Amino acid sequence: MPGITAYGAYLPRRRLQRSAIAAANAWFDASLAALARGERSMCSWDEDPVTMAVEAVRDMGAAAPVEALFLASTTHPFAVRQNAGIVAEALNLGSALRTMDAAGSLRASTTALMSALDAAAAGQPAIVAAADRRRARAGSPMEMLSGDGAAALRTGGEGEIATLLGAAMVAADFIDHFRASGDDFDYGWEDRWIRDEGWLKLVPQAVERALAKAGVEPAAVDRLIVPCHLRRVPESVAKACGIPAGAVADPMMETVGQCGTAQPLLMLAAELANAEPGQTIVVTGFGQGCDALVFRVTDAIGATRPGRGVAGWLSRRVEESSYHRFLTYSGVVEREYGKRAELDRPPALTAQYRNREGVTGFVGGRCSRCGTVQYPRSIYCVNPNCGARDTQEPHPMADVPATVKTFTADHLVFSMDPPAYLGLVEFEGGGRTMVEFTEVDPESFDVGTRASMRFRIKHVDERRGMRQYFWKAAPD
Amino acid sequence: MASGIRDKVAILGMGCSKFGERWDAEPSDLMAEAFEECIADAGIERSQIDAAWLSTAFDSVNVGPSALPLATALRLGYIPVTHVENMCASGTEAFRGACYAVASGAADFALALGVEKLKDTGYGGLPARTRGVTNDLFAPTVSAPGAFAQLAAGYRGAHGIDGDDLKRAMAHVSVKSHANGARNPKAHLRREITHEQAIAAPMVAEPIGLFDCCGVSDGAACAIVTTPEIAVTLGRTDVVTVKALQLSVSNGEEVGFNGWDGAHFKTTRIAARRAYEEAGIDDARREISATEVHDCFSITELVTMEDLGLADEGQAWKAVLDGRFDADGEMPCQIDGGLKCFGHPIGASGLRMLYEIYLQFLGRAGERQIGTMRYGLTHNLGGHPAQNICSVAIVGHYDG
Where are the beta strands (DSSP E) in chain B? Predict the structure, then answer.
């Protein structure tokens, strides 16, 4: 039966305190204080929907082969250059893969999930990943209520942990907010109208259709996922559908915020971590209509666990109280970066293409003669006692644990997160390379610190709109 | 087996510009300043120069590419001129080219000139630059202090040295070089500093603080070389000859294989061993009178003392604190102020080091003059501790 076979999530480590947003903007809009509860996740400068999606897929654990990858986002870094293709290459999923970007609506993720389940039903296991890093004007409610994050699901026709019972949708050009192509920010309408005419009418309609298809009574629903940033809307939707109030899933507004199109899958990943066999879960996605999917949790639920999962990422947090850092990383303020930042590094798409396995996939080489692991792959083996030619077999290293051998905190080089930490890491089983570090806690970081590789932005070429991805080491 | 360079080439003349923030000077001014001193010292005509080598590492800042900047600045006579670039070892690389020309018999007189014009960027420190489009895909973005600070972490880890002890030794290196630089009218930085100032200076790349970094300077230095026989014919009684000239270039093993401890320069150890052999030096600690090493950062000088065999492994920090390399110590290091205070116009630095050693041999170093010289050693390091180019040159009196 088609269903979900694995799930994963990713949340950036920084959590911006909403009180910091309110305090900085109180001079202009004191009413923001009413929204200033808890915290929201925020990307570091080197994270975006592509990097977060990669981490969410990695969080699903050991890779089973898939034949399709769908990436949903309303903030895809590239308008042209398939974003799903970057994610697929970072994950070394192979070239015999159907890849597609889903976009344009906050329900792009649930629609993509339907497509992934269709593929699974046709015998093609698939991955659907969703990620958003939504930009908002300084001092706007959207800035306050949004979060950054990603989630991923694997679909398949067997061994599923949650079986699809039925799915339905309601299509309606209901414009709660919009953003024209090329614009930086969304433009929205009044919350009360969005609630009354949108969420409270379109969502129940989709849920009723889906439950009817699934042959499930509303009262039998155990968990209801309504990814809404407006207070009490999930409860009102449940009531309108006849679903028990206790089934309403936490929309994670006080811990994460509304992560755009990632939110339904993020909430589903959180629910699956606590699900029990036999439970019925309804997932909804809202945006120019509504998608609703009904799942039944299977006995296999305990067998598949994500790496950190939503709970793990939630607890792996650092409080961020610098609203100005947030504005800078969001690109909302024009900051003086110093002349070192002016170095022009235009893309070299030829070199990028030749080296994409090593750069995007972090695939090194392992000498078939002497076994030496080396990064990057080279013509001649680096082992001085070997030196064999053309013996290096592809050796994926992104998931290999590493140890810090040397490092420094560089205050001179341009960095969006100074000081820049960089140094030499050695991989378990051999191989070493110079890396940039990310997410360093100065107090606990030293030679010998254990680290894992993370897919991040290495460099942004603002002039041409190009961003260069690569892997960095983050302390465990 | 190759017979090596020993006593095949004599230094006939040398010159060096004032180093510093030469807001007033174009690269051509700096080249002419060094060259005028050099050609006067050599006592030959410009038209007698058979071939020339130009070293500059950051040519895109101002000097410009190719050998043309040297040929046009000095109006050389349409002779062969070669531009060399090997990062911070560039100056010694130019010298090597000139020496090889003389040693081969292809030239009677060869010129090596290094110049760098760094202070046309609008900011302090070395100019930011790319490392080529493919390298930029992989390599971390790092400043020079950031790269060399790795060495401090590696050295501390490998030998179990307390961070504060190492920082004290690093401070001693810089205090010593400032004291030396203060006595050198051509040096960029001419103020003495205290140990406390060095320790308390703003952090640049942990644990490298401001006073652990060398000066970023404009400047030029040059040499005219010939054969010892010609030097004697020209009336020289005290001929300074090249005893060894070695270069060792990393093949990527340090950063790519699994043995390197991050606490030493593999290249320096290899180049030093070969140079001592080439020069016929059995006991470097007794036979070498003074060194000019690549003190781009204090930690580099400290570790280099071990790699040159002038201090025991893991013990250089103690030798430094004991004053062994001070002006009045057993083996003065950077008697001219070093990169630290004479300054570091990259392409000129190797030749600047030779310039000081040459002056010491001829007793022309003024108040910096140390006692009798037996061998003098210069050392350059281009790149990063994990992957670099090391040059070692040894000069001495001509034994005939």
Answer: 10-16, 51-55, 81-84, 110-116, 203-205, 208-209, 219-226, 240-249, 288-292, 375-384, 387-397
pLDDT in tens, A321-375: 999 999 999 988 999 999 999 999 999 999 999 999 999 999 999 999 999 999 9
Check whether B1 has a pLDDT greater than 70.
no
B92 in any annotated domain: yes
Contact criterion met (CB < 8 Å) for A411 and B130 = no
Would you call B134 and A355 a contact, using CB atoms and an 8 Å cutoff? yes
Crossing angle (nearest 10°) for helices A200-214 and A233-241: 50
Claim to verify: residue A320 and residue A349 sit in the same structural domain:
no
Q: Do A32 and A175 fall into the same domain?
A: yes
For residues A151 and A237, state if they share a domain: yes
Helices first, then strands: H and E counts in chain B: 15, 11
- Answer for the pair B175, B166: CB distance below 8 angstroms, yes or no: no
In a domain, B199, yes or no: no
3-state secondary structure of B74: coil
Report pLDDT digits (tens) over B104-119. Answer: 999 999 999 999 999 9
Chain-centroid distance of CA A92 in Å reads 17
Q: Is B188 a catalytic residue?
A: no
Please calculate the CA angle B319-B356-B219 and round it to the nearest 5 degrees. 110
Is B222 catalytic? The answer is no
Contacts of A140 (CB under 8 A, 6+ apart): none
- A201 and A265 housed in the same domain: yes
This model of the complex carries an ipTM of 0.92
Report if residue A375 sits inside a domain.
no
Residue with token string 């009180």? A19
**Residues in A touching B120 (Cβ below 8 Å):** none
The number of folded domains in chain B is: 1
* Prediction pTM value: 0.95
Closest-CA residue of A relative to B163 is A446
B35 lies in which domain range?
10-121+218-226
A223 and A75 in a common domain: yes
Domain that holds residue A427: 345-362+397-475
Identify the CA nearest to A476 among candidates A435, A439, A431, A430.
A439
Is B150's CB within 8 Å of A343's CB?
A: no
